[in-house]
Amino acid sequence: MAYDVVVIGGGPGGYACAIRCAQHGLRTALVEERELGGVCLNRGCIPTKALYAATRLLHQTSSADEMGIAYAPPAIDLAKLAAWKERVVSRLTDGVGVLLEKNGADVHRARAKLEGAGQIVLSSGDTIDGERIVLATGSAPIEIPGFGFDEEAVWSSDDALALREIPARLVVIGGGVIGLELATIYRRLGSAVTVVELLPEILATVDLDRRTLATLKRALKAQGIDVRVGTKAEGFEAAAEGTRVRLAGGETLDCDRILLAVGRRPNARGLGLDEAGVSTDERGFVVVDERLATTADGVFAIGDLVPGPMLAHKASVEGVALADAFARGPSTSAIDVDYERIPQAIFTDPEIASVGLSESAAKADERATLVGRFPYAALGKALGMRESEGSFQIVADEATHRVLGVQIVGAEASDLIAEAALAIHHDLTLEGIAAVVHAHPTLPEGLKEAAEAALGRAIHAVNRP
What we know:
Elements: E1 2-8, H1 12-23, E2 28-31, H2 38-43, H3 45-62, H4 78-102, E3 106-108, E4 112-116, E5 119-122, E6 127-135, E7 139-141, E8 154-155, H5 157-161, E9 169-173, H6 177-189, E10 192-196, H7 210-222, E11 226-228, E12 233-238, E13 243-247, E14 252-255, E15 257-260, E16 264-266, H8 273-276, E17 299-301, H9 312-328, E18 344-346, E19 352-356, H10 359-364, E20 369-375, H11 380-384, E21 391-397, E22 403-409, H12 413-425, H13 430-434, H14 445-454
Parallel strand pairs: 1-2, 1-6, 2-3, 6-17, 8-15, 9-10, 9-15, 10-11
Antiparallel strand pairs: 4-5, 5-6, 7-16, 12-13, 13-14, 18-19, 19-22, 20-21, 21-22
């Protein structure tokens, strides 16, 4: 079988690329060995956020008596919670299958291997040909020496999301996005959680300012999550009860499970990259140019396989942009993706969301800036929600007032960042945001107030010189 485009990998980047290619009238095939939707829908973004929402109820009801509303102690039916999470996942993955079918993309349920010259051999025994091939196989969890996923005591993020048990004591190795999100969920479920991070700061790979991180660290401590930064986990052994993690310096931590969440690696093994002439860098990422083309003719790569933030929406926008480029015909121009304006959301408690430059990054770039901040504690809606922890921060160019970046730490930050992303995408100024009438009382008022504060004319906060 011959196709105009063959996409290998059915995650957010792969299925979006296949759908858009088919919409352009290109004969399109998508090859996926496992479930449609990839890691994000099945073992990542979606199940994590479903459990984040479910466990938030536990946090809210535990302190509702301060409003005069009392609940009996909640009972957690872990099997029922896991089944509900799976229904959410299934609804979305089934929907992806329907969209591919309705748009005319063929789906091959098999493992793919490149054979060169546009040929792909499937584990089903079939061979298909693609004039253009898109690699979109995503990423996989990283192991470190002394902590293998084949050990019963060691969990990957996949294991943690399977919800087989609630460990009384959980040690999370890795203070990045995945580690902190799962630490939040399991602390709400009742686990005593300790986070061990090798680097001197949590979320070290995310461009966040110290005020944002300080707010999160205070909140984590208040929730009872013990965070150890600058600490190396060297190994573990069986203890009288459970498992004992050995830390550098001789300290030990007793636990019942270890969650290893130190990052992810490109999932390129077994694809036949070497045979096809596809080069990778020293970290295993596929080398691509500004067109997302690899070193092999007619082969492209997107998403977690290539350098850049490992975000589902980054993969999706690359997949769609690549499909649009295919429809335009042969081109030497760069793919139209502005990587500096891709937002990110982190589902800790409180949530963190950002887009564009941080204040520290702007200073490092020697940009003259205006910075405005506004606290959640000054928002009537936030007080009524009992969500007063957090703030809005906006960074703008001093000369033009064009918005360069926004950080939000607080309730519903993941939703609130969309307005900021739109503003930055369209090069809006502080005045442009401040002039928009925001409904009252709402949380989005905080962004308007932060813009006013940057201009030195805040109404509901003290203006700083």
